[in-house]
């Protein structure tokens, strides 16, 4: 059978996952693995969650944990989900922060002037730069447009003076 787990002859449930990546398992195989399997299988599930904290496997684990009786590993998997997502979000905030810093530097403006021209208090821009908060998509567009405009102005001035 080409499914992610072999069906139990009596229950019709998935009881033993095969060697395919966890991301290809049906939810019933995840449920069965949480019920029956050993540490090696749970580690495969954890690895899949860490690779993609909002992906298919993570969503399947959430679904199983919400709809079934508590498993012995449920607290651990809940913590893995939370930590993996926190880590991913921190990395994403850091990436956005780097991008905001690039836009600021490219504009040639100082931080107070940049903040004023995008319509936010200086503390809010500092929050973006320090990866404490993330700007909205519309704010990112506003910052890019401001950066583009001032980069063009600087390039024109350099061309005219040289």
Instruction: Return Rg in Å.
Output: 24 Å
Give the CATH architecture of the largest domain: Orthogonal Bundle
Strand content bin = under 5%
Oligomer class: single chain
Helix count, per DSSP? 7
> How can the largest sheet be summarized?
2 strands, antiparallel
Overall form: elongated
Q: Which class of secondary structure composition applies to the elements?
A: mainly alpha
Detail the poorly predicted runs: 1-15
Let me know the number of strands.
2
Distance between the ends: 72 Å
Region (Disordered): 1-22
Description:
It is built from seven helices and two strands, in the order E-E-H-H-H-H-H-H-H. It is mainly alpha-helical. The protein has two domains: 5-72, no CATH class; 89-161, 434 Repressor (Amino-terminal Domain), CATH 1.10.260. It has a two-stranded antiparallel ribbon. The radius of gyration is 24 Å and the shape is elongated. Residues 1-15 have low confidence and may be disordered. Residues 1-22 are annotated as: Disordered.
